[in-house]
Amino acid sequence: MPPTEEIVCTDDDCFLDLFENHYTYDVPDDFDVTGLSCPVCGGTDCLEPVDLE
After folding, report:
1. Structure confidence at residue 38 (pLDDT)
2. One digit per residue, pLDDT tens: the chain, 53 residues?
3. Per-residue DSSP letter, 26
4. pTM for this model (two decimals)
5. Burial class (CB in 10 A: 0-12, 13-18, 19+), 27
6. From 3, 35, 40, 50, which residue has the greatest number of CB atoms within 10 Å?
7. How far apart are alpha carbons 8 and 46 in whole angstroms?
8. What pLDDT sits at residue 12?
9. CA–CA dist 42, 39 (Å, integer)
10. 4 within 8 A of 20, measured Cβ to Cβ
11. CA–CA distance from 17 to each of 1, 8, 30 (Å)?
């Protein structure tokens, strides 16, 4: 099953609190949230993965 990751936006001006990102089977092992942007505010340095462990 391809990986799924919950990500939060920490920007105080953004109303998005959490989104789920579904990856494909060929996502590189070294890929992380620094390669993403918030789908609402467009910020890139305000995203943090949720650790479910």
Report:
1. 94
2. 777 889 999 999 999 999 998 888 888 888 888 889 999 999 999 999 998 76
3. T
4. 0.79
5. middle
6. 40
7. 8
8. 95
9. 6
10. yes
11. 25, 6, 25
